Amino acid sequence: MEHCSLTIAQNRTDYFRKGILLNLQYWQVWVGKKISDVPALDQERANVIRAIAYALDMEEAWPSVYELIMTFSLYMEKRGYWDNWNQILRRAAKAAEQNNDTGKGINLSVLLARLLFQQSRFKEAVICYRQTLHLTRQLGDRFNEGRICSNLGYYYIERGQWYRAEALCCHALSLFEQINSAHGRAHTENHLGILYTWQQRWDQAQKHLEQACKLWSSMQDEYGLMRGYINLGGLYNWIKYPDKSMFYLEKALHQAQLTGAETDMGTIYMNMGVSYRLAGDFSMAENYAKQAEIIFQHFSNTTGLAQVWDNMGVLYFKQGKLQKANQYLERSLNMWRTLNNRKGEIRTLMEMIEFELATGNLLQAQILLKKVEQLIGQNRMMQYQDLQERFIYYHQQLGEHSTA
Fold this sequence. Notes:
By secondary structure, this protein is mostly helical. Helix content is 84%, strand content 0%. It has helices at residues 9-34, 38-55, 62-79, 82-98, 102-118, 122-139, 142-158, 162-178, 182-198, 202-219, 222-238, 242-259, 262-278, 282-298, 302-318, 322-339, 342-358, 362-376, 385-403.
């Protein structure tokens, strides 16, 4: 009978390494079978992470541990385990470099950049995307080039840099059409739908969002479909059709529950709160806004908090709860400034001007309007088309009061 003595150091090391490999293989098969079973993944998450963490230090485990990371990544993002997963992705990207595996390193860097964006670590995300984009072009990796351009396009949508956003997304869409990538096309159609919503190009926004949903549905991508429904719900909130918005948001909520997308439920609840406010049901609006706030706080989603606090400020203002309204608008404004998000800051300042006008504090309204003028600048006004009419209206109102 063959056996090895564990009294020899090398034998102990070999035995331990074989154990790591066997454990990794077990969890790789298990995750592959259970990837749609969120409760099962929740229960065994720590064991899977442990298997990955041990295997990342072993060169012979690299191909298998990489595959497990790629399979497990979306689950970790959806459930909000961002800090833990950030560390794993950084170690994995370093392992790819040590193994001279540039292709896998690119895929891991894209995942890391996307995660950094979700963590509101925008500067780090952009640096990571740009460095990785350079590598994709060197290798002729058109899929990841398109992926990065599409994701950077979304980043610039959020920052109000719409010309750059549209150029990046259209370039990405062209790449995905050339390589016939339905996955890439769906995400980029979705990003263009968001852009055109912000620009109030409603027909184009609807067309692109519906196309994204159609592609995701054909691929049976439940998580992607949820994102499309969220954005269609947001579109109909913008044009003040709360019933139609709720139709899509209910569908999005069903998809989120189906896929275990806990972090996205905050966005869904926030948008539901807006729908109920538009419909005049302030009690339900407050209930959903508070649920969204709890989720955003739990996952340290600072952008989500800035948005929901702005919405709560508007809601309390509509109810005549002026002290609460002012409190939440101040919170939102401070968060936008912390994030250096000019578009969000301008939007909240507009709400605060509305508040000051309604309460008769014209001097404070003028001070706030001056801040908006400084932020926008006349040459950048067209980037904020959704705010332009309000800006002109407030300028006229306060100009008349000053003359009087």
